[in-house]
Design a protein that fits this description.
- By secondary structure, the chain is of the alpha+beta class.
- The chain has a single domain, classed as Alpha-Beta Plaits, CATH 3.30.70.
- 34% of the residues lie in helices and 34% in strands.
- The protein is built from three helices and five strands, in the order βαββααββ.
- A five-stranded antiparallel sheet has the order 2-3-1-4-5.
- Helix 1 runs antiparallel to helix 3.
- It is globular, with a radius of gyration of 13 Å.
- It starts with a strand and ends with a strand.
């Protein structure tokens, strides 16, 4: 089992566009093989912080997700909406890796 928490700090003027695009990405990702849970949230403490929470059957499923066509489109679309790069934490078998 693989868990992922991905945190993105957004430019305030682009928040709505990011959230709209995230909805499409979430819908497509939920259809992927190996996706157990995939959701996005606005932080309660910082309204310009978006958090993806994910659970995958395996690292292979997560890697395939990263290579999917909709993720390529999402990365390109969302790049200009971010105030800083996304911080991704991958948690597996008690071990935490940072990408």
């Amino acid at each position: 089992m693989i868990y992922v928490v991905a945190i993105t700090q957004l430019k305030p003027e682009n928040k709505d566009a990011y959230v709209t695009g995230a909805r499409d990405c979430i819908a497509a990702t939920r259809k992927e093989a190996g996706c157990i849970f995939y959701d996005g949230h606005i932080s309660v403490s910082d309204p310009n912080q978006f958090v993806f929470v994910e659970r995958w059957e395996s690292r292979e499923a997560l890697n395939a997700h990263g290579r999917s066509d909709h993720m390529k489109v999402w990365r390109k679309l969302s790049a200009d909406f971010k105030a800083s790069p996304t911080v991704i934490e991958i948690i597996s078998d008690g071990k935490v890796e940072t990408l």
